[in-house]
Amino acid sequence: MKAHKVDKSKGPATISRSAKKVAAKPDGNKSLKAAKPKPAENAAARKPTATAAKSGKRRRPSIDPATVKAIFERFAEIEPEPKGELEHKDAYTLLVAVVLSAQATDAGVNKATRHLFAAADNPEKMVALGEDKVRELIKTIGLFRNKAKNVIALSQKLIDEFDGEVPADAAALESLPGVGRKTANVVMNVWFGKPAMAVDTHVFRIAHRLGFSSGKTPGDVERDLLAIVPGEYGVPAHHWLILHGRYLCKARKPECWRCPIRELCPMEDKTPAPRK
């Protein structure tokens, strides 16, 4: 997705639409992962224990609505109209691209779909192209065999049950082969402009670091975010959180020294700038 490119100059980070580099998949870092409070605990009031301090775990403090709004206002000032990085021209090509993006980078998917969509850019053409050819065209993407099967199956179902059109309904989208909640939410948000929240690894991480959620599952985090994000930012918030996690608030070493919301972030032990 195309927004949170970091300014290479000194000083606070900015978001640039000219982002060309897609960060590699974030590595896991136990010291940065969401804390898992016991059910009986009040996550908002919880204080770090001596054990947590020794293990290097970060505290997830609560965050007030005014700060939440200020964070999204800052994102809006920097990039008013964030865009996704998956190349597409309509709802169908977006749907296929998102299905192919599971466990793959947007850049890698775009390289494959340029050839795929040149050969077939609607359900009828895709079914006519056939699974073998689809598999050949997307073989550079992880899990390409199963994904090729799903692309053909979902295309056939669109023809059989939806007159070849991508439905503007999350439940209907989830009924398609290879389409889960996250994929459905991306399509609903990006193409249909609905305030849906697709919780990927970046959104999950950022939601916990900013104190927006202490949920243990993507579904829990999705519900928390939909409840806390100000209504006027309901659609772009999805992009901002993903891109913030992709380009700045990374899993292994968040670039706190360049973060445009540093003073609003409740996380402790912010990463210092690297020594020159």
- The overall pLDDT, averaged over residues, is 82
What is the makeup of the main sheet?
none
CATH class of the domain at 91-190: Mainly Alpha
Specify Rg, calculated over alpha carbons. 20 Å
Outline, from the CA principal axes?
Answer: elongated
Strand content: under 5%
Regions with pLDDT < 50 over 5+ consecutive residues? Answer: 1-61
| Helix segment tally | 12
Relevant CATH superfamily of the domain at 91-190:
Hypothetical protein, domain 2
Structural class comes to: mainly alpha
Which fold name corresponds to the CATH topology of the domain at 91-190? Endonuclease III, domain 1
For the record, the CATH architecture of the domain at 91-190 stands as: Orthogonal Bundle
The rounded distance between the terminal residues' Cα atoms is 30 Å
Total DSSP E strands: 0
Tell me the quaternary state: single chain
Please give the share of residues in helix: 40-55%
H/E series, N to C? HHHHHHHHHHHH
Task: Describe what you observe in this structure.
The chain is an all-alpha fold and 276 residues long. Among the domains are: 60-83 and 197-264, Endonuclease Iii, domain 2 (Orthogonal Bundle); 91-190, Endonuclease III, domain 1. Helices cover 45% and strands 0% of the residues. The protein is built from twelve helices and no strands. The chain has helices spanning 50-55, 65-78, 91-100, 106-119, 123-129, 131-137, 144-162, 170-174, 181-190, 201-209, 218-228, 236-247. α5 (123-129) crosses α7 (144-162), α6 packs across α7 and α10 (201-209) packs across α12 (236-247). The protein is elongated, with a radius of gyration of 20 Å. Mean pLDDT is 82; it is low at 1-61.
